[in-house]
Automatic annotation (TrEMBL):
Its main location: membrane. This is Transglycosylase. InterPro entries: Transgly_assoc (IPR007341). Keywords: Cell membrane, Membrane, Transmembrane, Transmembrane helix. It is found in: Cell membrane. It comes from Arenimonas malthae CC-JY-1. It comes from the Bacteria. The keyword Transmembrane helix applies.
Length: 80
């Protein structure tokens, strides 16, 4: 059940990151996948920066930050 919640929160965070990063999104489905990957990436990156959030909202915020960073990096690589 936790995995399902993780995937849903990651997908929602990816969708929102695609809305926020206008012009750098790749469509709803890919943005959702980026959100799930962003949840992993944010979960790795934020504690290294000394930032951590708890609970489902914390997971959402972490996934959102990770998805925004990943969309920005993918956008830079795509332009190059």
């Amino acid at each position: 059940m936790n995995t399902l919640v993780f995937l849903i929160i990651g997908a929602l965070a990816g969708w929102l990151a695609g809305v926020v990063m206008k012009g750098r999104g790749f469509g709803v489905v890919i943005n959702m996948v980026v959100g799930v990957l962003g949840a992993f990436f944010g979960g790795w990156l934020l504690p290294k920066l000394g930032v951590s959030f708890g609970g489902d909202f914390g997971l959402f915020f972490t996934a959102f930050i990770g998805a925004v960073v990943l969309l920005a990096l993918i956008g830079l690589v795509k332009k190059a």
